[in-house]
Amino acid sequence: MKKLWGILLAAMLLVTAGCGGTEKILSTEGAPQELLSSAGYKAALAEEEAAVIAFNGVPMTDSAPVRAAVAKLQNGGDAVLTYYNFHQWAAADPQDTRDKGLFAFRLTQKDGVLAYQDDYLTDWESAVQWGEKPFYRAADPKLNDCGYFSFLFEDNDAPNDRYLFFCPEDRYEGYNERYALTETYLQPIAWQCYCNFTDPEEITANAWLGFFISLYEGDLPMDSETASLPLPEMLKTLLPRFEISETALRASLTTLEGYRAETDTVDYYTGGRGGLTPLPFAESAVQQGDLLQIRYGVMGLSADDLPVDRLLTVRLQEDGGWKYVSNTQAPQTTAEGVTELKISEALPQGCLPLYADPSEDLPGSLYRPALLQDGTVALLAVKGDSFAEGAPLVGLFLPPEGETWTETATGLTYGNRLRNIYSEKEGRFTDVMVQGNCLVLRTEYSTNVGTTMDSYRPDRCEETWIRPDGSVEQKSGPVQGLNETVSPDGSRVAARDNYGNLLVNGTVVLDAGNEHPIWEYDRYYVPDLWADNDRLIFHEGVYKYKTGLGAVNLSTGEVQQLPSRVNQAISSIFCLGDTVYWSVNEQFCAGGEEPLMGERVLYAMPAADFPQGEAARMVMPQTTDWPRLLTDGRLWSARYQQETLELTVFDPETGTGGSLSIPVAAGDAAYWTVPCMALTPDGLALLLEGSDDTAHFYRLVRVPNALLGSIKMERQPSLMEQMQPADLDEVFEVFSGRWQQDWEDGESALFYRQDGDCYYRFGEREPEKLVSVSTLGETGYYFTTVGADGNTGVLLADTGKPKDNRILLQVYVGETYPVEFVYRGE
Known about the structure:
Blueprint: H1 2-16, H2 33-36, H3 39-45, E1 50-55, E2 58-59, H4 64-74, E3 79-88, E4 100-110, E5 113-121, E6 136-143, E7 148-153, E8 163-164, H5 175-186, H6 205-215, E9 226-230, H7 231-238, H8 246-253, E10 259-260, E11 265-269, E12 279-288, E13 291-299, E14 310-316, E15 322-329, E16 332-333, E17 339-342, H9 343-346, E18 351-353, H10 364-367, E19 370-371, E20 377-383, E21 392-398, E22 406-413, E23 421-422, E24 426-435, E25 438-448, E26 456-466, E27 472-478, E28 482-486, E29 493-496, E30 502-504, E31 507-510, E32 524-530, E33 535-542, E34 546-553, E35 559-561, E36 568-576, E37 579-588, E38 597-606, E39 616-619, E40 628-629, E41 635-640, E42 644-651, E43 656-663, E44 672-680, E45 683-691, E46 696-704, H11 705-708, E47 724-726, H12 728-735, E48 737-741, E49 748-754, E50 757-762, E51 768-776, E52 780-787, E53 792-798, E54 806-810, E55 819-823
Parallel strand pairs: 1-3
Antiparallel strand pairs: 1-2, 3-4, 4-5, 5-6, 6-7, 7-8, 9-11, 10-11, 12-13, 13-14, 14-15, 16-17, 17-46, 18-20, 19-20, 20-21, 21-22, 23-24, 24-25, 25-26, 26-27, 28-29, 29-30, 30-31, 32-33, 33-34, 34-35, 36-37, 37-38, 38-39, 40-41, 41-42, 42-43, 44-45, 45-46, 47-51, 48-49, 48-55, 49-50, 50-51, ...
């Protein structure tokens, strides 16, 4: 390998041997004559291959040959690219003669192998002897449209640095104008470019200090460890650059921790900034009257294309000056019109979102942003710069298609109400929910009524209804139980208690029959919705046995239940008009490498006939993931996968659905979920949530109506259409006998005949009669069954490998995999 690398390096030396020539110089502004007449500068000009020649980091050369060379490097072609930066600075020590020097590097690519050389000279008269410099491996060369270049050096995964390759006078795609915007308006506040404000009065005192340090050009000892900053000097620096009154600015600055009223100064400890300087760069600008709006991005560690997602507004002055008016996060927009907004970088100054609370003891639904019904982003935040007990709690709202947040004071403070407690005597649970276009903070107080284990009975609740228009409403009252739902006329409240019983106005209407305390595998009833003022629809759960839907008529006491299916897991139920819909994940044994195949199914039945009527079955797109009913009466679903949002929609009225793949940025997390979505007048808003070991990240994605309209709606095929009817007697002979789960004390499955009929029984369950069977794939079987109560059911089976005395049976509802059974004889 070393010999091969040496051969490649020798070939590179031949590639780099130049015959002389000159690069086109666009501008030498600022460069001293001593440099322009130096031998080192002339040697750089003589480079035959593409080269960047810069003075103090600012290039003087045309970018055309450089861009061509970078394109070759990125495409694996043979190329040479050299960078020369001649620099000069004022030496702090008069005896130090190292006031000038040259840093240079060269990238050479031969036969797809990229190598790096560099050198540092302490004068301008010497030339770099590239033939004597060692080669190192390099990779990933990048050049963005802001003129910055980066690459990876040897085994270091981080870029070495970011180098400016474009001359300020370069007119390539309007670069000279963008550079001028950047240097004039963005560079002076580069360190504060992420400071969001729609009005300078929103800027916090600490942020003002940062702006002063960035803008100050006087003689104060700002580079020493500590400095005493006269407040008049700070006002003198900041007022000409911001639209804010002296009274308001002084009032903010005097709240700094280091302010001393007796001397009217601010004690400042520099401590250093650390890290690479942020590199904002302008993309475009629009002038309306005396307001200039600059759209820009901020570069990361490498020269990737910038996310142009920030907007700076300045007011131009008649004397040629300007004042900063606002600086906000702006959505990125793709060619299809999809916009993405990083919520964490868009929040206004002076507010800390609860998801940034380092204590990590807040419930997830409390700190997570939400989407109101109209698509407004809503979240709770602390007013101030720390999570201090007693700090004011505010609601922040970003309207649909808007870029400016509004703030609602809640009258609440950061403190214990936000934290859940469960003690031996009582409990407190705080949650945030959306009710229409309100954000509701709800705290539920309960009593521990458990005996051998804790079980908390809800007693009362307090609610704070927070609205985007600035209004707040406080509500409180008793709690009927868990999962409360109110009848259409408001006369009845359904809930479930701690023991799984179904309550209406506090009276048990369905007794789950559980001993205290309730365990997860005991029976329970949960109210879902009201078919009308008399009929309540509920779902029943029995852990590892079955789940089903039912309805209770409160006038007659009659209870009717929908026959359950072991291959169905119910995910949601809702009403549209006079029809009840419920979605399920329906599974099948298909006889392949995957034990189970599933499809998302939506069932529909007239509310008046529920649950004994005939249900219509509709298959939804298979990318559907926990569908949600939105205001257009359709079911929407989205999931993130490999920098793509898979969006699906299903129309219950027509039984048709479709999907759409939307490319999105990877962002700060490797994986994202979509906790909420909402329709807006202009399209669909989706909230994405991601996290790493230290933080949570949130992004808002807006999909325009034009793109949503491109979804092709069509009927979806079903696995049931692939089934082939089979002879029950013949198939039964394959399964006849006793089978046992393949572990110690595993339960048994018995297939037997009685009075000429075929039966199946699992464990201690009631036997079920096998009515018919169909095949799916080579070894998959779908039995229909009927129980002693007359309810029909399903049994899934797979014979797997032939003659191995093993089968697979789906016996637990909602399980991802069927259970393996071993033959134990007749």
